[in-house]
Design brief:
Elements: E1 20-26, E2 30-36, E3 54-58, E4 62-67, E5 71-77, E6 82-84, E7 93-96, E8 108-114, E9 118-124, E10 141-146, E11 149-154, E12 158-164, E13 169-171, E14 180-183, E15 193-199, E16 208-233, E17 239-248, E18 261-264, H1 267-270, E19 275-282, E20 287-296, E21 308-341, E22 347-360, E23 365-373, H2 375-380, H3 385-395, E24 399-400, H4 402-411, E25 418-420
Parallel strand pairs: 15-18
Antiparallel strand pairs: 1-2, 1-3, 3-6, 4-5, 4-7, 8-9, 8-10, 10-13, 11-12, 11-14, 15-21, 16-21, 16-24, 17-20, 17-22, 18-19, 19-20, 21-22, 21-23, 23-25
């Protein structure tokens, strides 16, 4: 079997794309300027309060507010755009705009129609720029089940703002006036989709021989003779190669949407391929397992393509077996790289270690045994061939060692009944 070492470059486990907003003191992106790379709730701390006349966003979209703490009238600056300020010299705070994932493990706000979490309720997982008509100006109390949230009195996240932190329940200060709400961008846990895992061969992935699996058999024999016969094994069973990778839970991965993952690595543990699509399932203990089971067929079911034919004479008997050697890997702390794609389209990789269990098979082997019964032994017992048939029945569809089958076959001819070969 051929194997290879994956050469991988691991990037930082952060968002690949960086976002910058440049604010200018004059129209047309002129005059003094300043670069913002994160949320700034008070421009007065930067000596830029009420001085913004034009802007330019690179690497992501931004929003500006006419009041501090992201309140008042809102101006959106799309990524890659250069704009003059909608309200010249009036902006007092600004921040990047998040791209959210619908993930109840990251963000969930429950709103109630009355104070103290009473009355009708509704859950929100995503930013909502205008709540449904039946909930507009109706929210009186909220519970932040997951993540920190902000609520606004106007649509499109404008007007007066109130926040609630994860785990808190509060009564709304301005009752029945909430119109829009969303997770707070600065504290939002950006969860990404796991797309691919690259398993790195560190020299500790050599498969170990476990057993031989019988995938086909045929027998023949008779006490009548002398005559010549042909015994053919024309088809075999398939086997299943399996791999299981277990990964510790990480905040970066949105496991809820990771329904399939590409696994790359050495063919010696992935068996018949170097890349397979597998499913993700949650396992106990906070970890996640990624499994694949691939059927590997050693037969097309036709005598022309697969099998073995041998000649034997009677009185006598013969056996033909098809088998594959079974190899396994059961290792912990195998280095791997997780390749993730985030809701905003950015990608990053993260180094990790995995627990790997793998079962693989090389190509099939065919082998035969034949023996001759003495005429005197057949005269005493015409059913000597039933012993050979019993060996076949005993070892078909089993995991065993070839020596055990050979010994059982020879026993059918022992004690003066005949000889093998």
């Amino acid at each position: 079997m051929h194997c290879f070492l994956l050469i991988l470059i691991s990037l930082s486990g952060t968002w690949a794309a960086s976002s910058t907003l440049t604010i200018y003191e004059h129209f047309g992106q002129s005059g003094s300027s300043r670069d913002l790379t994160g949320a700034e709730p008070r421009f007065q701390d930067l000596n830029w309060n009420d001085k913004v006349s034009s802007v330019k966003a690179v690497g992501g979209s931004w929003e500006l507010y006419t009041n501090t703490e992201f309140q008042g009238s809102r101006m959106v600056v799309p990524s890659g755009r250069s704009l003059n300020a909608y309200h010249n010299d009036q902006y007092s705070s600004g921040r990047p705009i998040c791209v959210y994932a619908n993930n109840s493990d990251t963000a969930k706000l429950i709103v109630y129609e009355h104070y103290d979490l009473q009355g009708a309720k509704k859950e929100y997982l995503d930013p909502t720029d205008h709540v449904e008509s039946e909930w507009n100006d109706r929210i009186s109390s909220v519970y932040a089940a997951k993540g920190d949230w902000e609520m606004y009195t106007y649509s499109n996240y404008e007007g007066w703002r109130q926040t609630v932190k994860e785990g808190q329940n509060i009564n709304v200060q301005i009752n029945d006036q909430i119109t829009s709400l969303r997770p707070i961008c600065e504290t939002y846990r950006k969860t990404c989709q796991l797309k691919r895992i690259s398993v790195i061969d560190n020299g500790n992935l050599e498969p170990q021989y476990e057993s031989t699996e019988i995938i086909g058999s045929q027998d023949g024999g008779s006490c009548w003779g002398p005559s010549s016969h042909t015994l053919t094994l024309s088809s075999t069973d398939s086997v299943e190669e399996s791999s299981t990778l277990e990964i510790s839970e990480t905040d970066e991965v949105n496991w809820g949407v990771s329904t399939s993952v590409q696994v790359e690595g050495s063919s010696k543990f992935l068996g018949s391929g170097v890349s397979v699509t597998v499913g993700v399932s949650v396992s106990a203990g906070g970890s996640h397992s990624i499994t694949t089971t691939n059927s590997k067929s050693f037969s097309s079911g036709t005598e022309k393509l697969v099998g073995l034919s041998i000649g034997y004479t009677t009185p006598g008997a013969a056996l033909v077996f098809g088998s594959v050697d079974r190899y396994k890997i059961d290792k912990s702390d195998i280095p791997a790289t997780m390749h993730m794609q985030c809701p905003d389209g950015s990608t990053f990789t993260k180094r990790t270690t995995i627990k790997l269990k793998s079962m693989t098979y090389p190509s099939a082997h065919f082998w035969s045994m034949n023996g001759t019964f003495y005429k005197k032994a057949c005269a005493k017992n015409w059913n000597l061939t039933e012993c050979v048939r019993g060996v076949r029945r005993q070892y078909t569809h089993t995991l065993t060692n070839k020596r055990n089958i050979v010994a059982a076959f020879k026993a059918c001819f022992a004690n003066g009944k005949g000889y093998v070969g």
